[in-house]
Amino acid sequence: MNLDPKHVNPHDDPSLHEVQPQPPTIDHREPFNDVVKHGDIVVGHQQNRVLSDYPKRVRPAIRAWSIVALALVLATIVYNLVVMF
User: Fold this and answer.
1) 0.90 cut: is pTM over it?
2) Are 63 and 51 in contact (CB under 8 A)?
3) Does residue 4 fall inside a structural domain?
4) Domains contained in the chain, number
5) What is 26-57 written as a DSSP string?
6) What is the pLDDT of residues 16-49, one digit of tens each?
């Protein structure tokens, strides 16, 4: 076994294995996977992903529609649970 300090094992050298992670840059308009990216390509433009992407005049209608749709889904689930038991 060679204990000479001049002999350096590269597998034990931490400076060779240090990886500095890059901080993620998140763009909410960028597709997060290939399926969404493919859908954008097929449609021909990027679809809106968050409510702030829509025009201000349309946001209240979209918000109301979302609330009504969610309430209907929850009501249907509750109704089915009540009928089942």
Assistant:
1) no
2) yes
3) no
4) 1
5) --TTS-SSHHHHHHHHHHTSPPP-SGGGS-TT
6) 656 666 677 766 666 667 777 777 777 777 777 7
Read off the pLDDT of residues 40-84 as tens digits, 9 standing for 90 and up.
777 777 777 788 888 999 999 999 999 999 999 999 999 999 998
- In the Cβ-directed half-sphere of 26, how many Cα atoms lie within 13 Å? 1
Distance CA 35, CA 75 (A): 31
In a domain, 65, yes or no: yes
19 domain residue, yes or no: no
Burial of 57 (0-12, 13-18, 19+ CB in 10 A): exposed
Is the pLDDT at 15 greater than 80? The verdict is: no
At residue 35, φ and ψ (nearest 5 deg) are -65, -45
> Is the distance from CB of 62 to CB of 51 less than 8 angstroms?
yes
Note whether residue 14 is domain-resident.
Answer: no
Structural domain range at position 35: 28-84
